[in-house]
Amino acid sequence: MWFVALAVLCSVAVSVLFRLAPRLRLDLPQAVTWNYLVGALLALGLLDPPLQALHGEHAPWRWWLPLGLLLPGLFLVLAASVRRAGIVRTDIAQRLSLLLSLLAAFTLFGQRAGGWQIAGLVLGLAAIACLLARPRAAAAAAATDWRLPLVVLVGWATTDVLFKRIAADGAPLSASLLATFTVAFVPMLAWQLWRQLRGGVHLDLRSLAGGLLLGLLNFGNIGFYLAAHRALPGAPATVFASMNIGVVLLGTLVGALAFGERLGRLNLLAIPLAILAIALIGRGMG
Description:
Layout: H1 2-24, H2 28-46, H3 61-85, H4 87-108, H5 115-132, H6 136-139, H7 147-168, H8 173-198, H9 205-231, H10 236-259, H11 265-285
Helix pairs in contact: 1-3, 1-9, 1-10, 2-3, 2-8, 2-9, 3-4, 3-7, 3-8, 4-5, 4-7, 4-10, 4-11, 5-11, 10-11
């Protein structure tokens, strides 16, 4: 379970880096750009993807392209959500995106809904409602906070559906990661060069270093999660539940203790509801 713990740490560390970005004077569009370069290089060097899978009539570029174009924008929304809505709400929203992914599995991929999964969906929807609720005193001051976690939830579920489509086409995960990271990097790099030419923002070493760290953490999250599944091939539900519940719990602790994030009673209720929903869905996978 050490791999799961490391994956959880990397996931929450990404949120912490986003929260600290203004203090560190990081230009997040630049950091996100270099993050995808790091991801592509690590996927190429460590995962040994079959490069022949990237070309030919069976290469699922119809899914790789939209996924690669979606990821950078979603990452920037994730960063904005962490800064404005907090680590706790954002991490819970990101993990509860599995509810929409599960609905897509039932409707698009022909998966049968079990009793545990239906119960998890019901509790998860209740958790989302509690998560997005705002205390009355804070509602006027942060009226848009609920929108960003909602976009994170929908966006992350969309990426999961695209990954499922890619897997259904038989593309190796390593090749898919290389393709999507590369697709994400190219337009982001073009955007940074355009910003540089316009003179509004200059490429800087501080944001480059932040992007390298972000890329390592992001890839570490993916790599350790995959390693956990390889180490426990007979317990995919355990790995799934442990990863998601671990992020919710650690994200809550870090957000509340390290950054003083305040939650209303309904927001606090979202935490046990989300954990129970994840556990039930994981139970349905077993």
